[in-house]
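Lab meeting tomorrow. Please check the following:
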Amino acid sequence: MDGAEKQMKKRILCPSMLAADFANLERDLLAATGAGAPYIHVDVMDGNFVPNISFGPPVIKSVRRVIPDTVLDVHLMILEPIRYIKDYKECGADILTIHLEAASDPEKTLRAIREAGMKAGISINPDTPVERLKPFLPLVDQALIMSVFPGFGGQSLIPETLDKVRELKRIREEMGLSFDIEIDGGVKLSNLSDVLDAGTEVIVAGSAVFGENTAEKVKEFLEFPGMSQ
């Protein structure tokens, strides 16, 4: 992939299910995907790697039945995720992202994800240097920069994390790779220009999408200047 092709990567809105109304989860998911969101971001937390617990394979399996044609972007914020690759494959994950900080053997884990037939992703927290990702980038389809410290929704984007996106984009070009760059945490319409200008291609948004008028909010993101490039 040459430089011109890289510049034409499509921007993808990935609403975070963590911000949906769990009492009306089907309604919210159908509103988001019906309005054009091609991905749904699913945060899996184990209460160990992050100080919160969310949901696991049984919930994701039900979500898969509700939105069978939507890409499920499953973000594992759990220790030693290699233990659960088969479970997340069976419940319908399309992309499985692990944390560099949570895997004792990231290379083995990423290879196992790919061998299971899913796309592989790797993520780092705001205080982890981007340079640490370099050995694993040839194995991934997606690299996720956390723009907040993971564990809870509704946080404000840490501006300095956009420098990490820029650095990751530079490294990708130097290495001649084509993985997508994703950001997660505090993204909203008021900072979306900065997020896109930094080089982000997959935009995770939670509380800025789910709530009242979810479908309208999705359309606002999708129609935002730069999202259609």
Notes: The radius of gyration is 16 Å.
